[in-house]
Amino acid sequence: MTDQITFKGTPAERALAEQIHEVLRLQGMFYPVDAPVRQLLGNLVSYFAQRRGESPDKTRSDVAAAINANPDIFTQEVQDEDVMIITGRRGAYVQPKVDRSHSLVTRFYEPVNPLPVDDISVVITTTRPVLPKIDPVFVSDYWLNGGVSSESEHDLDTIIPVDDLTYAPSADGESPLIGQAPRRRSNQMRINLPQGISIDLSQSTDHIMALSGDAIVSALRATLEKDPYERFAVFADMVAAKQDVRSFGKNEIRSIVDYIENEVGAPVEDKDILVHVMRVSARSVDFEQQLFALNYRLHKDLEFVGVPGVYMWATRKLLDKMSANRRFKASDMGNLFSYLKDGLDDSVAVDSIEHIQSRGSVSHTLSFFEWDYGVLPLNRALAAILPAPIVSRQNTAVIRVEVPQLPGFHFDISVRFPMSGRGGWLQGFDSFFQDQEILAPGATITLKRTNAANVIQLSFNEADQRIESLLYVDDSKKKSKFAFREHSFACDVEEELLTTQSAIGRIRRIKFLELAERRNMVSLVERIFEAFGEEVGTRQAPAYQLGFEQLYLVTSAYRSVSREFLRDTLTTHPNCQLVNHTAGLWSCRIDPNTEARRDDAQFDEEDE
After folding, report:
1. What is the mean pLDDT of each run of 10 residues along the chain (608 residues)?
2. How far is the first Cα of the chain from the last one, in angstroms, to the nearest whole number?
3. CA-to-CA distance for 331 and 391, rounded, in angstroms?
């Protein structure tokens, strides 16, 4: 905004008038300074109605009120059935006064009373006038040296830094320069960010950035990305003028896609693409500029799966192949983790996020669901040590997991970031959780951050080899079901979370539910009460009692769940109540006509 313009009217009218003038100023940004900028009132109403999400009639009245309140800045001309709004880049448009007294037409005009010519030499002369002597113009050495000062290195050290200069008011109101720290005036402005954060500009820059740096960067990025004239190229936290960013042709994009899918078959770093596909030397002077241009261009056609400092690219076809799992759909899995976005995440109940970040590691106990499907919840504790998304609409990040206890063994996982309506999770652990025959449900693993942004380490507590009959999902037939088989593992486990046949054998009394059916926690809890609880009601009004930890064990075999989520479900269930707080015993009354009761009546005698 230009500081010379003062708008009038109510606060709302002044704000809208300022926005109208800014739009017209951008329209005439390449006009001469004194040229008029014109726009129809109807076009302004259509633009602001769409921008503000209001009706055209309401917007027309607001725009008209703002323009009428500032007649010194906006001029109105009736044009057909619309009104033309006229202003200037620096405020009101002023019709320039053209001095035509010295024009060719005026000079050749015969005056009414011409002056007599007494001496023709006054009009025509053959004497050559004396040319004035032009004095030479001396140019400063600063500009002759290309903008570099010619002062010695010793002199530069004696210059007072800008940050150490201040202005002390003198008697005449001026501010001579003295060599002390600056003092800011107490009546500085405050600005409000779109996130609702208010920033006091009287504070130091370092203090402002320490408190609200991320919010400022986010707001600035959003503003640049929404520039109506698309003058900026923005990628991650970098920005450049779009006219200075090189473009890539369709054939070059095809070559990159072919390199990722057919030659490498895995996500590729941006530097490798630029060197191996685009044949740009890493020692090129403009290597970083071309790297930015590549990332900016690929964001339109490829999938960004990188992390801060390591920008990785993949195609949608490659990601579908990497995350392909016939056992579940991504949408169903995301729904099972949606409780993380509902404030029912208890992963930081013991350790604070600050402590986790300073330590750089998180311990997590595997449930049967996580161990069987090879997934982990992206809860607040894990998010504290894992990289966050760095570009808008980033769905996935690919990171490598190293296991120091198994030298040379590593695998890649996908971090699925939370989206609207679904929670986040980590997938790709199935090759390690089950195939290595090391871990089992109830095992505690530790994930640790490393110096590489795209690498984490996984460790576990080793123990003697052990064989137990554990729960698994039998997918050998068309209809899946729970079953038990012997499994070997070599780690410490929490015995109360180990899904042995003696602890959870009754789970086969419950109908096997597909992932899409497990989202309804109320129905699932009622089924578990019926199958595992002690019946304390009557046939007409059945009721069951079950311990909280047993209920949590069975629920965690069906889906991802936190104890806080399960406790919230029981508390809000109208037919569930806490019977014994010390023993953690809950009771639940079941409607005898529920569908769950009819479906789960398929009890097999061999389950006993």
Report:
1. 74 90 89 88 90 89 91 87 88 80 72 64 64 60 54 37 40 43 51 79 84 83 82 88 90 94 92 94 92 92 92 90 72 89 89 91 94 93 92 90 92 90 89 84 94 93 93 86 91 92 87 84 91 86 92 93 94 91 89 57 42
2. 78
3. 22
Task: State whether 518 and 453 are in the same domain.
Answer: no
Dist CA 166 CA 162 (whole Å): 9
Q: What is the CATH number of the domain that holds 242?
A: 1.10.10
Pairing of strands 455-460, 396-402: parallel
Q: Exposure of 447 by Cβ count < 10 A (0-12 exposed, 13-18 middle, 19+ buried)? A: buried
Residue/partner pairs of 2-11 with CB below 8 Å, 24 or more apart: 2/90, 2/91, 4/90, 4/91, 5/73, 5/90, 5/91, 7/69, 7/70, 7/73, 8/69, 8/70, 8/72, 9/65, 9/66, 9/69, 9/70, 10/69
How far apart CA 428 and CA 78 sit, in angstroms, is: 67
The CA distance from 79 to 504, in Å, is: 82
Return the structure tokens found at 262.
Answer: 């057919």
Residues near 12 by beta carbon (within 8 Å), at least 6 away in sequence: 62, 66
Q: Domain containing 454 — which CATH number?
A: 2.40.330.10
Based on the fold, state whether residues 25 and 73 are members of the same structural domain. yes
Torsion of CA 511, 512, 516, 522, to 10 degrees: 40
Residue 295 lies in a domain: yes
Model confidence pLDDT, tens digit, residues 399-417: 999 999 999 899 999 999 9
Tokens describing residue 466: 């052990």
